[in-house]
Request: fold
Amino acid sequence: MNDNKLIGGISGLYTKAHNKHIGGRVYRGGSGSVSGEAEDLFALWLDGVLKARGVLIWVNPTIIFEKRVKTSATGRERKDYFKPDICVVEGEEGTEKTVRLLFELKMDLSRLGDFGAYAKKRGGIVRGLHRERAHCRVCSVTYDLSFEKGLQWIYAVFSPEYCRKDRMEKFKKKFGPSFFVLGNGHPNDDPASFKPDPGAFEALKTKILSSI
Reply:
């Protein structure tokens, strides 16, 4: 899948979501969510970028850590976990894998209040992951996981819309090496005007290939 097909596919998801007639006498009151299908499309695009690499790409996996943490509500201990949108793992045949790259996908930043604080907190989590062990069950197989030292968590935002221009520029400057805005326009406003940003896509591909 190339850049144009990815952006075109996301536009198609919005067009489909805006059609509230499900069938017969059944109608949806509001537009359906496109986030899960958008993750699938991005993962297929990523698979093409990494076609020469011996990796697996997991969409929205639940990664469970071996360490236990206390819950704030009850004080009871439980195993900690997190669910990245996209996870790239590497390893020989078998169930021992190393997490090499994480992605968080956002259609836009309209619903994410203080993105700067959010990204900073995530960055702190990632820096300590190389000391952790974890496991993840995918397609009925349980994998034992370790984490690459210097693991990258990349933010891919599809549209710059619904976020003040000065805030967006601030995010680009602060998180530039791991922050990419891939499109122009917004498919929620006009799917036909939602187009890829070629420079951003090329920069993202360079970042991905240099990280694995």
